[in-house]
Write a structure and sequence with these properties.
Strands 2, 3, 4, 5, 6, 7, 8, 9, 10, 11 and 12 form an eleven-stranded antiparallel beta sheet that branches. Helices cover 7% and strands 55% of the residues. It is built from one helix and 19 strands. By secondary structure, it is mainly beta. The chain is elongated. The protein folds into two domains: 107 residues; 137 residues.
């Protein structure tokens, strides 16, 4: 048996499909800039953490003899796109023992550690090493050297960095004294604006082949992304990768994510790892498309 196709009808069918596809393309307008605000709801599921900023940490160190020593230490944290924590070279901060200005030091710090997390939950593990000069009791011009190791969680409800395990502290003060022990009570205010909220900005061009760049906007930092994707009705499918050449942004490092946008931009889905944290969210959104809305009269 021979099956014969009518090429004329086949051509008409292909033409109709093509016209429908072109019409769908014409109806979709990709805004050159699309900014979505995330992490602002009460749930922690879509929060993202950048701990960059200044910290003043009060702890009570209990040594092996059960003696309690109040300690106040100040330092600066800098977080990169991979979640790594460091500090600014040459940054001078302070260390006070026993809440007493007569036992205070100007110190240089070195920080090493990392921020991890998933589902909006953030955790920071880092060590602050310090060295400096000051006074202890009635003795002037003495040196101090030591370290503090922290394992803490970000608490958006209180706005604090709260220890999840004992904080280890040690300090040798010239030949006068050694403070060494653990503390249960670490709680430090997070820097201004650091509450897990963030913006995802997408600068896109094209439709069948999407290219552009993006920015992970944090309260104290911005990290760059390169974007590549395409439109497969009814979704924009975009791959985001860390980039170092995005204007007004730091390197995006190893950050990477798959981003899905509905054709009307009413829903966004993001799955990947950003700033060292696993991100998985699927939510309705009202994006800022960069257009100006006239004020209501």
């Amino acid at each position: 048996m021979t099956i014969r196709l009518n090429p004329r009808w086949l051509l008409v069918s292909v033409l109709l499909i093509s016209l429908q596809f072109c019409r769908a393309q014409d109806e979709i307008q990709v805004p050159p800039t699309l900014t979505v605000a995330l992490g602002s709801d009460a749930s922690t599921d879509n929060k993202l953490w950048d701990l960059t900023g200044n910290y003043d940490v009060n702890i009570t160190v209990v040594d092996h003899n059960g003696l309690s020593i109040p300690v106040l230490i100040s330092f600066f944290l800098s977080q990169d796109a991979n979640g790594r924590l460091t500090t600014s070279p040459g940054n001078v901060t302070g260390l006070i023992f026993n809440n007493d200005d007569n036992s205070s030091f100007a110190i240089f710090t070195a920080v090493s550690g990392r921020v991890t997390g998933s589902g909006g939950f953030g955790r920071a593990r880092f060590t602050v090493r310090f060295a400096g000069n000051g006074s202890f009791g009635n003795v002037q011009n003495v040196t101090v050297r030591g370290s503090m190791t922290v394992d803490a969680e970000m608490d958006p409800s209180s706005g604090q960095l709260v220890s999840s395990r004992k904080t280890r502290f040690t300090a040798r003060i010239s030949s006068l004294n050694t403070v060494k022990g653990t503390a249960d009570d670490l709680a430090a205010s997070l820097p201004g604006g650091v509450d897990g909220t963030w913006n995802l900005t997408l600068n896109l061009a094209g439709l069948q082949r999407l290219t552009g760049n993006g920015i992970i906007g944090m309260p104290n930092n911005a990290f760059g992304l390169s974007l590549n994707g395409r439109f497969n009705d009814p979704l924009f499918r975009i791959q985001a990768r860390g980039a170092s050449n995005v204007p007004n942004a730091r390197s995006g490092g190893n950050s990477r994510a798959n981003i899905f946008l509905s054709s009307d931009f009413s829903t966004i889905q993001v799955n990947g790892r950003l700033l060292g944290q696993k991100v998985s969210l699927n939510m309705p959104t009202e994006p800022d498309t960069g257009t100006n809305t006239p004020p209501a009269e």
